[in-house]
Amino acid sequence: MTDPTKQSELDNVSRRSFLAASTGIAGSFIAGKAAAESLADVPQREVGADLAGLSERSKFVKLARIPEATPGRRNVDHSDAINSKTPLDKLLGTITPSDLHYERSHSGVPDLDPAKHRLLVHGMVEKPLVFSVEDLQEMPSISRRVFIECTGNGWENWKRADPSLTVQNTHGLISTNEWTGVPLRFIVDLAAKNQNATWMLAEGGDAAAVARSIPLTEEILDEAFVAYGQNGEPLRPAHGFPMRLIMPGFEGNLNIKWLRRLKFGDRPWMTRWETARYTQLQADGKAIQFQLRMDTNSVITSPSGTMTIKPGRQKVTGLAWSGHGKIAKVEISTDGAKTWKAAELISPALPKSQSRFEMTWVWDGKPTKIVSRSTDDKGNVQPDRPSFIRVHGTNALFHYNAQQTWAIDETGKVSNVLD
Ligand SMILES: Nc1nc2c(c(=O)[nH]1)N[C@H]1C(S)=C(S)[C@@H](COP(=O)(O)O)O[C@H]1N2
Ligand SMILES: [Mo]
């Protein structure tokens, strides 16, 4: 071993000799691709541009959300869009940059003045209250990294699999940010909620006035919060500026943006958002209402739809998440779900947050199918598509969490298939 405290020895540690000492994947991987012995092997230094008030992405990095309308209507104009999907295939790690967080806004993005905006807390409470953004910022805060996922995520694959879809098309209605705000329990205590109030109505200040009835379970009282911060800065207007509800693990729709009202009561309000919408017909002819939790899910983001791979070593990577808790395990099959191997879960694997997984695979150049399957710490396993369809049928639109299969043909082209 070299003594890392001696500069002369440090200089001698070339990348190659260091890696030659390591065993297994890393050693063989690097030896084939890069073998720099000296600085002459890397590009020269460059004169820098001026510093700026805002830092921009490199001109070599192209990242954008894609606007979509109803399923099947892609690449519409932004003015026609009902949502914008996150480029999951191009993201690294687990945090979604704020400007790439997926968006679902039912009636556009209101431009609210934080100095005028208020949150009304009323109904079955002893002390009805009105809060400004400043009031909230004076209260004790929490910051938590959680995913928000639209219940429509995955709806593209309910009936058929369009082979031209990317993972941004199939799964781009999920993102993970760090949100900062005031615990719901703090607000509930401040307003002195009546003990018989078991439901809460949360209503948005947009023209659509999206409003949802939320059951006040202990889990929700412990974990929900009213956020004013997103990835270290005030919320972006598209994501609810100046305040929104965050409901870790539950339907995206419950994370009410531009929050203007929390009303407490002893029964659900049965708004149009939980009757006409977000209620769905199952295979047995019955409809599910208040199907609030987002289920155990995962998707391979690379290689994924429309990419092309070459025979040889591949890094298979993707994202897994569960509204029940933490991801405990992700398995990958590279032979069309016949055999499975555990992928490596990259830490930290946080509860109700996206977790990244990776695996090395050597593709032999023959057509095959790759698929991932996640298991959470409550024992929920992501279903394969045939079992999922047996239970939910094909008339539903929301809460699709069946395993995603990507087919690879003999030319290395990757495409979306049902199973
Ligand atoms: N007031 C209001 N809240 C809303 C919505 C809306 O249109 N208006 N859309 C909901 C839906 S359907 C989803 S999936 C999430 C999306 O949050 P995001 O746009 O920050 O990703 O916000 C929810 N909250
Ligand atoms: Mo949604």
UniProtKB/TrEMBL annotation:
GO molecular function: heme binding; molybdenum ion binding; molybdopterin cofactor binding; sulfite oxidase activity
InterPro entries assigned to the protein according to its UniProt record, in alphabetical order: Ig_E-set, MoCF_OxRdtse_dimer, Mopterin_OxRdtase_euk, OxRdtase_Mopterin-bd_dom, OxRdtase_Mopterin-bd_sf, Sulfite_DH_SoxC, TAT_signal
Domain Moybdenum cofactor oxidoreductase dimerisation: 292-398
The Oxidoreductase molybdopterin-binding domain, residue ranges: 106-273
Gene Ontology BP annotations: sulfur compound metabolic process
PROSITE patterns: TAT
Superkingdom per UniProt: Bacteria
Keywords, sorted A to Z: Metal-binding, Molybdenum, Oxidoreductase
Pfam families in UniProt: Mo-co_dimer, Oxidored_molyb
Swiss-Prot/TrEMBL cofactor(s): Mo-molybdopterin
UniProt keyword Metal-binding, yes or no: yes
Name of this protein: Sulfane dehydrogenase subunit SoxC
